[in-house]
């Protein structure tokens, strides 16, 4: 569709110019009209040639209205009408910070906070009267347990899982190019490793979902030979088993055969013209113990690279079943990524998006404390994802137990997403979430890759400045007591009161049943995901 808009704008500009010249010749005082048409023609031609704004490349002239209407912000106007800020999918402040950092624009502003600091729920970090000086903002964490032969020095902020097919080729190239320049990782999503991931050259975390895309046989089952071929490639730094995702936990998916391009078929290892199914659950294992053996197989087949899994916490007991299987088998993942239900950059059913799955703060706290209770936390790294966009968001996740953070939404905005919410229609106006070749061309890869790099660099700089202000030498030093929040109009509580670290080994000793951990632990089994009784 965009090619027709571009062509019509060009033809319209030419016709307008011709009519204007005729008007000058045959009509009196028509020179004003001629100047207007000439100006619009030049604007249209400039819009199609410039590389900074994808909207203008796809929608010359009329795309300028977007920047006017952006000031009105329909979602903010709705908030003003209804008074519910939680319904704003991506706030004005969040977008401004992403855009400013991606474009290397100064993000400081006068006249203090724009937040309502006296409202219940307001949160902040404590600072030190003796701040520290941090020389480098290249913050990293080593991922790899005792059975890992190729540990990975990961950035503490990386691109979260978004598949090729959901995102365009140019979006993947820009994300991966920025990741390569900045030395951070790019999670492939469950759509497989595409030629565009390889072309970018950046570090990859290969996510393997229930469809086993890129590592499946003709029946859709896991193929260890194909997996080993891809997982052993140097660009792949870690392998990640996806159990569920925050946007729609417990659901599978289907890509209709009509939407499968040759490039998608190549990346996923599926035939053209046939519906591509992602089952709701895995076929390679059915019990917690089998799952641990499968993760060990993934690690061995990859040549000893870090292997782990990602999930949105649902039944808490089921996560405890997995932890018990770790103890029983002696097999532990190198990492676990906790996905909050508030995450998710693609389309999902409204009920799932709003009411299914555990939010990140609660899910991360629960996983962190369960691993502490089983005496396993020191050997397993925890990643966190779910609307982690600001430096404060990352600092809070680190304080509550994460070792690193992932972001999909922030990096999507860095490559030009304007939240048109047309991801599932193939009509994305900025070329980010579409397979339309003409629309994709609006996303200029070198420019957007630089923005991805800038966003990551400037966000970690802000995180480092916050850590230094708190008297820390590294953001990993953030703990719950650094976090304060207002509970009521005049009451405040510290993070360790609301989200305390439970004692190491308390589940093994069975000596602390705060928050119902021990009750669930006793009902969890390593041999089955089903409960030992009828509870969850």
Write the layout of secondary structure elements.
Layout: H1 2-26, H2 31-49, H3 54-58, H4 64-70, H5 74-82, H6 92-102, E1 123-125, E2 140-143, E3 152-155, E4 157-159, H7 169-182, E5 185-187, H8 195-200, E6 203-208, H9 224-231, E7 236-242, E8 253-255, H10 262-268, E9 276-278, H11 288-301, E10 307-311, H12 316-329, E11 335-339, H13 350-355, H14 360-373, E12 381-385, H15 391-399, E13 404-407, H16 409-414, H17 437-440, H18 445-469, E14 483-486, E15 492-494, H19 495-498, H20 506-509, H21 517-523
Parallel strand pairs: 4-13, 5-6, 6-7, 7-10, 10-11, 11-12, 12-13
Antiparallel strand pairs: 1-14, 2-3, 8-9, 14-15
CATH architecture of the largest domain: Alpha-Beta Barrel
- Helix amount, in percent? 40-55%
Give the full name of the CATH homologous superfamily of the largest domain: Aldolase class I
Q: What's the CATH C level of the largest domain? A: Alpha Beta
Coarse shape: globular
């Amino acid at each position: 569709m965009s090619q027709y808009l571009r062509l019509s704008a060009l033809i319209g500009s030419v016709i307008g110019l011709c009519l204007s010249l005729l008007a000058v010749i045959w009509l009196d005082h028509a020179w004003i009209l001629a100047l207007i048409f000439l100006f619009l023609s030049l604007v249209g031609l400039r819009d199609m040639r410039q590389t900074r704004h994808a909207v203008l490349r796809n929608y010359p002239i009329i795309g300028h209205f977007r920047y006017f209407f952006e000031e009105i912000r329909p979602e903010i106007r709705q908030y003003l009408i209804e008074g519910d800020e939680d319904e704003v999918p991506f706030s004005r402040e969040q977008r401004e910070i992403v855009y400013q950092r991606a474009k290397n624009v100064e993000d400081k502003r006068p006249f203090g906070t724009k937040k309502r600091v006296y409202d219940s729920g307001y949160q902040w970090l404590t600072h030190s009267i003796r701040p520290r000086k941090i020389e480098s903002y290249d913050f990293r964490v080593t991922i790899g347990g005792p059975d890992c032969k190729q540990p990975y020095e990961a950035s503490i902020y990386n691109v979260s899982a978004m598949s090729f097919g959901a995102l365009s080729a140019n979006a993947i190239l820009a994300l991966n190019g920025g990741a390569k320049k900045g030395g951070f990782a790019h999670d492939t999503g469950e759509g497989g490793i595409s030629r565009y991931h390889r072309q970018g050259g950046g570090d990859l975390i290969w996510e393997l979902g229930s469809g086993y895309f890129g590592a499946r046989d003709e029946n859709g089952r896991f193929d260890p030979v194909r997996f080993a071929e891809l997982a052993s490639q140097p660009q792949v730094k870690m392998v990640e088993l996806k159990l569920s995702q925050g946007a729609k936990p417990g659901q599978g998916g289907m890509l209709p055969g009509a939407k499968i391009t040759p490039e998608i078929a190549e990346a996923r290892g599926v035939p053209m013209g046939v519906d591509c199914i992602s089952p709701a659950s895995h076929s390679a294992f059915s019990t917690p113990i089998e799952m641990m053996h499968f993760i060990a197989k993934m690690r061995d087949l990859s040549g000893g690279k870090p292997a782990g899994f990602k999930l949105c916490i649902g039944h808490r007991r089921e996560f405890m079943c997995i932890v018990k299987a770790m103890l029983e088998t002696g097999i532990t993942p190198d990492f676990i990524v906790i996905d909050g239900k508030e995450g998710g950059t693609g389309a999902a059913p409204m009920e799932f998006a709003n009411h299914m799955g555990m939010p990140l703060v609660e899910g991360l706290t629960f996983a962190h404390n369960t691993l502490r209770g089983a005496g396993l936390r020191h050997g397993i790294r925890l990643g966190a994802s779910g609307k982690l966009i600001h430096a404060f968001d990352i600092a809070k996740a680190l304080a509550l137990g994460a070792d690193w953070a992932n972001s999909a939404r922030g990096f999507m905005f860095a490559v030009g997403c304007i939240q048109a919410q047309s991801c599932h229609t193939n009509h994305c106006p900025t070329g980010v979430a579409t397979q339309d070749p003409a629309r994709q061309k609006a996303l200029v890869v070198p420019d957007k890759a630089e923005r991805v790099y800038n966003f990551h660099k400037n966000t970690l700089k802000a995180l480092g400045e916050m850590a230094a202000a708190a008297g820390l030498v590294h953001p990993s030093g953030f703990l719950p007591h650094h976090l304060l929040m207002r509970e009521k109009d005049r009451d405040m509580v510290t993070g360790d009161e609301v989200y305390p670290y439970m004692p190491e080994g308390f589940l093994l000793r069975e000596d602390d049943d705060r928050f119902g951990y021990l009750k669930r632990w006793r009902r969890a089994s390593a041999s089955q995901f089903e409960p030992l009784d009828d509870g969850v």
